[in-house]
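Retro notes, structure queue

What went well: the backlog is down to a handful. What didn't: a couple of records were mislabeled last round, so from now on we paste the full input next to the output in the thread. Example, using EF-hand domain-containing protein from Prymnesium polylepis:
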Amino acid sequence: VAVILENFTMLGNTNPDLVSREDIDQFKEVWADFDPDADGMVDYRQLPKLLMRLPHPLGLLHREGLKDQLEEESVMLAKKMAIKGGLKQHSGFVKFQELLEVLV
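Corresponding output:
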């Protein structure tokens, strides 16, 4: 088991597009800002803002090529990410675990 974990850690250090424990912790922190009730649900309309505050590789913050885009274009890109990943809406809300799975 230790060898597998060591290899995973080494792989994560060499490929910045892989999701790390720190990336997931950042996701939790950003999510908490959009889920003040801590019920595990965020309004779907807030998804673009959430993704734009979430750093790469999970989100759009600091993503190469987005600096020059207008906010409207970034919102459209965030929505496309959600749709492409098959994210489900539940009465206009998205679930924590489902969004995390789509982004990973």
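Agreed that this is the format going forward. Reviewer comment attached to the example: The longest helix spans residues 21-34.
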